[in-house]
Amino acid sequence: MWNDCLRVRRDAFASGEPFPKSAELSKQFITEVKRTVERGWLSDVSAVVLQQSLRDLDAAYANFFASLKGTRKGPKIAGPRFKSKRDSRQAVRFTANARWVITASGKLRLPRTSSSKAAVSGRRPSRQRRPPPDRGPSPGNA
Description:
Elements: H1 2-14, H2 22-32, H3 47-69, E1 101-102, E2 107-109, E3 116-117
Antiparallel strand pairs: 1-2, 2-3
């Protein structure tokens, strides 16, 4: 997903075309590619993970352009790079709306997949809902 969207954006830049918007890329690479035979396996993956990859690419470009303009603190950074299949530093992030659950045995369970071992790093959002605020006695109970 990342590499496909990065390739389209780089090709557009090289040919002088406008920068493809995220909505266009989402439609092309999340919706339409799932229907192809070669990438049919993407239908088995939660769309949230694919959308997060596209958001990560947008953030990488935003940081790159901010670096060029000088509005980003620190040294200038290069543009986003293609990801290697052979890189062992594989990672994925799930948003709260991905409906993930960490079981009592410490396994990660996602929609459309079975439970699997996971190394959880970083802060996890709380799954507890706050009770509604106390609004005092209702008019019928006074």
